[in-house]
Amino acid sequence: MAQSTTAKNKYLRDYLKDLPDFVFSYIEEYYNGESVNTKLAYSLDIKVFFDFLRAECYPEIKKNEDFTVSHMDKVTPVLLIHFKSYLREYEVTYTSPRGRPVKRVLRNSAFGINRKLSAVRGLFIYLYKTEQISQNVTDKVDFMKLHQKIKKPLTTQETVSLIDVLYNGENYFEGRHLAEYNRRRLRDIALFITYLGTGVRVSELVSLNVGDIDFGADETSGSFIVTRKGGDQQEIFMPPQVYEAMKEYIDSINAKDTDPLFLNRSGERIKVGGVEKTLKNYCAAVGITHPDKTRPHALRRTFACQLLADGVDIKMVAELMGHKNIEVTHRYYAQYSQQQRREVMQEHKVFEVDE
């Protein structure tokens, strides 16, 4: 894992060398504490903006690293609107492993356009606040309107079925699949019951080390600390069923406090992709096939909707989910309220029927 992070950091540093120095300062100062993947994503999005400027305004500039702050001060709202339109579909040229130039057409959804606009806006805010440019024109350009797609949580029956296959996989698997289930049974119970019972993000869950789990002095309740988006840490308290699953799992392994909590079959820290693949196998075993419900985030969504159904205040739900913006939590409320609307309409009578 350390080698992978080191390699990514080296790739990021090499990538930033091809961008202006003020971009390097922006990424390092504004995203200090963020993951290398986050830094790289913003760097890639900003590169698209400089590629656009070279193609549309500055053909004499051959390399992105040659842009200066004065070029940013000349960017106009009209140019940014043009960039916004350009992002819908544009052509890039890169060199193949065999050294041949390859052209490719790229397209962005509304979400992708907004992400790139957000990266550029962040850069301009940084330059303006540090008095390197005279004005921030990006606030004059609106983001694309997003149409929120409702993604459903697991139903009560689906949740029960998933929990049953986790604890009683011998009733669902056979042969080598049963052997694999038995080998990782306690790990998977701890992994998915914790996910379903605390609503943490899958990235936060796989980042835990054995020593991060605190079972408490009374041996009935415990907690662990995760690093939320933005770098803030939050203590996550474990419900009794999560506590029991985690305790049994950790007692079954011979690990040091510094070791990763959840390992894959190679003995390395399990990755997000590995969690998703494992969850899909369990979902397939109990007939859960909807793509929205077979991804790890479905368990986080189910956690939030269950709290709302239990009458927990939405502000508390937002805090438990690690949402800085309560509007994000409202999306889960919309998913939960869909069931409430269904129940209301099932009881609604358009007209009375005479007995």
What does this protein structure show overall?
The structure is a single chain. This protein is mainly alpha-helical and 355 residues long. It folds into 2 domains: 2-140, Tyrosine recombinase, N-terminal domain (DNA polymerase, domain 1), CATH 1.10.150; 156-347, Orthogonal Bundle (hpI Integrase, Chain A), CATH 1.10.443. 54% of the residues lie in helices and 8% in strands. It contains 14 helices and 5 strands. It has helices spanning 2-16, 21-30, 36-56, 69-73, 77-86, 110-129, 156-167, 175-198, 202-206, 240-252, 272-285, 297-309, 314-321, 326-347; strands at 89-95, 101-107, 213-214, 222-227, 233-238. A 3-stranded antiparallel sheet has the order 3-4-5. Strand 1 and strand 2 form a beta hairpin. Helix 1 (2-16) runs parallel beside helix 3 (36-56) and helix 12 (297-309) crosses helix 14 (326-347). The longest helix is centred in the middle third of the chain and has 24 residues, at 175-198.
Give the tags:
single chain, mainly alpha, DNA polymerase, domain 1, hpI Integrase, Chain A, globular
Quick structural overview:
This protein is mainly alpha-helical. Helix content is 54%, strand content 8%. The chain has a three-stranded antiparallel sheet.
